[in-house]
Amino acid sequence: MNEYKYKQDINKNIFRGYDIRGIYPTEIDSDTAYTIGLGFGSYIKSIGKTTCVVGHDNRLSGMDLYTALMTGITETGIDIIDLGLCTTPMYYYACIKLQVYSGVMVTASHNPKDDNGFKFAFDESGNCKGKEIQDFLAYILKGEFSSGKGEIRKYDIKPDYLELFKSNLNFGPRRVKAVIDPGNGTTATIVKDLYNMFPLDLVYINDISDGNFPNHHPDPCVEKNLEQLKTKVIKVGADIGLAFDGDGDRMGLVTSKGTFIPTDKYMIIIIRDIINKVTKKKFLYDVKCSKSLSDEIEKLGGEGLCYRTGNSYTKAKVRDDDLPFGGELSGHVYFRDRWPGFDSGLYAGLRILEILSKTEKSVEDLLEGINEYYSTEELKFASPDNVKFGVVDKIGEYAKSRGYKFLTIDGVKVLFDDGWALVRASNTGPNITARFEASTEERLSELQKEFISKIEEFNGKV
């Protein structure tokens, strides 16, 4: 008998839009992980699978949840390929390399240190999302699990993963100087072995794996988390600074002047570089991205595809539409020109280092001539999970009553000739998120004032 119990009263709120995620141990504990393991193993067995891949990031609760999860899975008769501690991209590549597409990664990505969760895939269609996750919850709540005795086999993906990078990149004559900040996340366990393979001058900070994330929050796409990186880049005279999130699937960057470059501008640099090297000139971006990106794609003679936010959605869309490249403002980018399409922060970083190695230009130079707009960061407003979607619906009703043009791909994006306002329900926490952009600072202020007042008004009423 094992020490874990099937959790009949599993917290339904942890089953979110892209994954399962919550606070450890109050919302997610070892019994939760065991129960999810029972459900996952039983479900993939029911669709004819016999084996799955599992891995975990460096969060302090990771081993507890990982052990319980594997116990649940093996009790259904499913065999496990055990990756142990790894980044999420290493887990993705293991699935590809081994051609075993059923799997679970124990991670809460860039969430605070006390959070943890599960990204999971049943089959080749990729990470579960939306209705699939809610259907999986319903499946678990039935409690009708298979039984058996699965086996666990350890597998080291690291050598294959390093080889994938080595065979994929081709650096030019310039030796780029870069400051690298793994943020004490899981990339700290592999970044030196990987980046030291290439002709670069490297300075590392926060490079000890520590699931407490003692130096800053592990989200590299929020500028305030990159202050140490900015300071170090300027101090050592580096050409660029790169930072990675807790599980390694996202990247943030700063220039030699210590300026934060959001992912949509990074995407402009990449698209400028590859557009004449790819046959299909169509590129995906999410609803949060600046108009400067869609303007640039148009200027280059390409076609843009605006899509909903969410790693599970955007990655699947880039694959299904056979696009050479796509991404979203949160830092997930997907290369399919010469890379297998999964999001890796370390690879995203090396692609811009490769571009810099073939020119004397700075990152700022590579962004010359783009259309500039004034925009906010992504703003968050606390709103309970059972309220936030109603608030967004009210914003849609308000926009309609005013005769505004708006999109409902993901939340409500209200479009004006001189800017836009985006209001959506977060799929990773009890928040409403908003972002604004306009052609002038004055107009940006007006848009913020109008829609934030409505968010606050509706948030108090729904």
Q: Can you walk through the features of this model?
A:
By secondary structure, the protein is α/β, with parallel strands linked by helices. Helices cover 34% and strands 21% of the residues. It contains 14 helices and 21 strands. The strands form four sheets. It has a six-stranded mixed sheet, with helices on both faces. Helix 1 packs parallel to helix 2 and helix 8 packs parallel to helix 9 (291-299). The radius of gyration is 22 Å and the shape is globular. The protein starts with 19 loop residues before the first strand and ends with a helix. The model has no long low-confidence stretch (mean pLDDT 96).
What is the CATH topology assignment of the largest domain? Alpha-D-Glucose-1,6-Bisphosphate, Chain A, domain 3
Strand runs, count:
21
User: Runs with pLDDT <50, length 5+?
Assistant: none
* Biggest β-sheet: strands ordered side by side in the sheet: 1-5-4-2-3-6
**Approximately what portion of the residues adopt beta-strand conformation?**
15-25%
Tally the helices: 14
Q: What coarse outline follows from CA principal-axis ratios?
A: globular
The description of the largest β-sheet is: 6 strands, mixed
Helical content stands at: 25-40%
Number of domain units = 4
User: What's the architecture of the largest domain in CATH terms?
Assistant: 3-Layer(aba) Sandwich
Separation of termini? Answer: 47 Å
Radius of gyration: 22 Å
> What does the average pLDDT come to?
96
Structural class: alpha/beta
